[in-house]
């Protein structure tokens, strides 16, 4: 089918009766929903706070009015609107006692300054480590499909592994880990998981700004406060007892103290024959208690049941939570309203729900999954993917929306990260009808692919992308789009000033939703199963469930 390329002005008034023309999305509704969700009354939508109840009540009422059905947990034989998400909350009590001993000389380390240790999420409520030896394990990567193993069978029981951030070819831009782009092996979450699998007592990640893609302030702010994880049967299988970061300067001192050269060993770590190196004569002690508690938050789940293959699912996802109430900004504002991040995505799910509920019934079922606790580490999506309400093997694809642009339309769009998969091909093909082109993630080395809710699905093999609004504005081009992007990053992103603005037109978002509707609707009416590209690290795990899709 050939779609007309519509000029942006004609969009809202277009009445051409093309059979499969996408529905129009109301900019008024989008604006009103974003305005409500990001108003001070919603207190920045912190999970497991009174604001959660308010948010759920509002989103559910909107979804109901839009004609969407509940798709959550089954209670008394009936689907409810939510999925309960139990979360482990852990906070260090007081100041942690941390001591590094070099050459017999103990030196106290200051939490937040040279080191940042996380409250334990391994199921324990205290950390008691006395003089544990330190072992440098390079990038801490064990990747059999790339014939790469930094551990080489080293025994890490009772020891602390010290590791570099990003993956072995970040520095050179050439090699087996996607060049500059970050693979999952480069992400700190992977490194801690692998340390636990290796039986290490703990792991310290050496912070360097370029390969981490953010500064020490971010490391400090996101690791020395309250930690959250989903409640796991065996948390110690993915979390070592001690998880922390150290500043590069401290690492250099530690290497020197052991008679080693940090830069030389880092270069060595970029090769296959790297072997773990003991930091001779050095040890770490850590003593602190944690206040741990299980709290319950919720994912909101709406559904439009498929007409032909209801057991097959297409998911639109996006998080409802934001940072809640926190430290005041210069104006004394303490409410982190999260208008762009992610009231826009939440409004998008409501309006996509309305489009599917009112449009021709799709053959596959479509889920509108408004997840919690994204800001605490993608936990709502992780919980859903670990405890899926509808089988992942028969989930055809996930289209995630997070922080859509509320301004005018752009000539391009992007996705987080540089993964290649059929869903992206579908997006690119459909975008042509809207006169839009795909612009690759300009900074795949920052690892945004692993920092958005679609990743909880991707790592389990489900084809999943996070859609990103474009920056080449129809009105003003790249200059205008980039200026707005920079303004947002600098003045609003994760700050109390991420607030609804009266001059937002929402015309770009309405157009982006047409594109997302088209791709999701085509997938929901297809019997195809788009896959990852042949060289993707997620393809093998998807293949394991291939028999269920016959
Ligand atoms: Zn977000």
From TrEMBL:
Gene3D superfamilies: 3.50.30.30, Zn peptidases. InterPro entries: M28_fam, PA_dom_sf, Peptidase_M28. It holds the Pfam family Peptidase_M28. Residues 1-19 form the signal peptide. Residues 299-514 form the Peptidase M28 domain. The keyword Zinc applies. The keyword Cytoplasm does not apply. Keywords: Aminopeptidase, Hydrolase, Metal-binding, Protease, Signal, Zinc. This is M28 family metallopeptidase. It comes from Rhodanobacter ginsenosidimutans.
């Amino acid at each position: 089918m050939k779609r007309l390329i519509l000029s942006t002005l004609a969009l809202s008034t277009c009445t051409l009766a093309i059979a499969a023309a996408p529905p129009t999305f109301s900019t008024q509704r989008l604006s009103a929903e974003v305005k409500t969700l990001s108003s001070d009354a919603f207190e920045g939508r912190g999970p497991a706070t009174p604001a959660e109840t308010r948010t759920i009540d509002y989103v559910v009422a909107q979804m109901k009015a839009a004609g969407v059905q509940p798709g959550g947990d089954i209670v008394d034989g009936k689907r409810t609107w939510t999925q309960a998400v139990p979360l482990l909350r852990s906070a260090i009590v007081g100041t942690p006692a941390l001591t590094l001993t070099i050459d017999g000389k103990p030196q106290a380390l200051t939490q937040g300054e040279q080191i940042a240790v996380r409250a334990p999420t391994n199921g324990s409520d205290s950390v008691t480590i006395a003089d544990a030896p330190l072992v440098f394990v390079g990038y801490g990567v064990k990747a059999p499909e790339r014939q790469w193993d930094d551990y080489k069978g080293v025994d890490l029981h009772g020891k602390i592994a010290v590791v570099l951030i990003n993956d072995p070819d970040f520095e050179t831009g050439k090699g087996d880990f996607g060049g500059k782009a970050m693979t999952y092996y480069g992400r700190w979450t992977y490194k801690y998981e692998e340390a636990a699998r290796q039986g290490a007592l703990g792991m310290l990640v050496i912070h360097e700004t370029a390969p981490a893609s953010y500064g020490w302030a971010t490391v400090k702010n996101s690791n020395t406060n309250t930690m959250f994880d989903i409640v796991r049967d065996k948390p110690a299988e993915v979390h070592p007892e001690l998880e922390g970061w150290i500043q590069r300067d401290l690492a250099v001192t530690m290497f020197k103290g052991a008679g080693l050269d940090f830069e030389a060993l880092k270069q060595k770590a970029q090769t296959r024959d790297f072997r773990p190196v003991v930091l001779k004569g050095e040890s770490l002690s850590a003593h602190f208690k944690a206040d741990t508690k299980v709290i319950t938050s919720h994912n909101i789940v709406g559904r439009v049941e498929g007409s032909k293959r209801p057991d097959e699912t297409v998911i639109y996802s996006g998080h409802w939570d934001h940072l809640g109430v926190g430290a005041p900004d210069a104006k004394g504002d303490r409410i982190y309203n999260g208008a762009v991040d992610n009231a826009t995505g939440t409004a998008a799910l409501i309006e996509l729900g309305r489009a599917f509920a009112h449009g021709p019934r799709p053959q596959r079922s479509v889920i509108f999954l408004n997840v919690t606790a994204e800001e605490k580490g993608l936990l709502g999506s992780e919980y859903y993917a670990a405890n899926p309400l509808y089988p992942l093997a028969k989930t055809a694809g996930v289209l995630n929306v997070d922080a859509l642009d509320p301004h005018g339309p752009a000539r391009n769009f992007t996705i987080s990260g540089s993964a290649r998969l059929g869903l992206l091909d579908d997006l690119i093909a459909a975008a042509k009808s809207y006169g839009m082109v795909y612009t690759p993630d300009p900074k795949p080395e920052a690892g945004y692919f692993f920092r958005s809710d679609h990743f909880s699905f991707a790592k389990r093999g489900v084809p999943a992308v996070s859609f990103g609004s474009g920056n080449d504005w129809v009105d003003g081009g790249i200059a205008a789009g980039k200026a707005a992007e920079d303004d947002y990053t600098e003045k609003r992103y994760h700050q109390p000033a991420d607030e609804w603005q009266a001059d937002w037109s929402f015309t770009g978002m309405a157009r982006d939703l047409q594109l997302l509707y088209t791709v999701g609707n085509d997938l929901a009416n297809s019997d195809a199963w788009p896959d990852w590209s042949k060289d993707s690290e997620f393809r093998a795990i998807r293949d394991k469930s291939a028999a269920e899709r016959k």
